Amino acid sequence: MTQLSLPPVAKSFYTFCKKCDADRYHLVLTHTSSTSAKIECEVCKSRKTYSLPKAGSSSSSTRKSAAGAGGTKAAGSPRSHTGQYTLMMDNQSDKPSAQYSIKGKFSDNQKISHPKFGIGFVIKTFSDKVEVVFQDEVRTLMHNRS
């Protein structure tokens, strides 16, 4: 993409949240100009102004806000949990999610809904544990307990 444009109003996009100190999905509330918009973090509900990065600027903070990735890992990198989460969310966004319960049994690539951590995807299963990638990190949860 050669020219950056603002995401449409009422759509979510991935960028850094200063309050959460993590990459998060933000909802676009309104466009305030052709290069800025009011956005709201979907986790902490903080509101802020998002501006498109300046053309030709190559500072790390610009790359961070434009790509929505923290640090040196790219958002689409398969080694990055945020990239893995985004990829799985794109592929399974239309599938229903199973409610997480310690008594439930889950399988690989299953979409789950956790009451505290939100939507996640099972990436590895064990007899009594599952590794789940959530928006903020990969967590190990108990399962298959009766």
Explain how this protein is built.
There is one protein chain. With 146 residues, this protein is mainly beta. The chain has 2 domains: 12-72, N-terminal domain of TfIIb, CATH 2.20.25; 91-142, no CATH class. The protein is built from 2 helices and 9 strands. The protein has helices spanning 60-67, 81-92, and strands at residues 12-17, 22-31, 36-41, 47-51, 98-99, 111-114, 118-125, 129-134, 138-142. The strands form 2 sheets. Strands 5-6-7-8-9 form a 5-stranded mixed β-sheet. It has a 4-stranded antiparallel β-sheet with strand order 1-2-3-4, with helices on one face. The chain starts with 11 loop residues before the first strand and ends with a strand.
Relevant terms:
2 helices, 146 residues, four-stranded antiparallel β-sheet, 14% helix, N-terminal domain of TfIIb, five-stranded mixed β-sheet, mainly beta, 2 domains
Q: Layout of SSEs?
A:
Elements: E1 12-17, E2 22-31, E3 36-41, E4 47-51, H1 60-67, H2 81-92, E5 98-99, E6 111-114, E7 118-125, E8 129-134, E9 138-142
Parallel strand pairs: 5-6
Antiparallel strand pairs: 1-2, 2-3, 3-4, 6-7, 7-8, 8-9
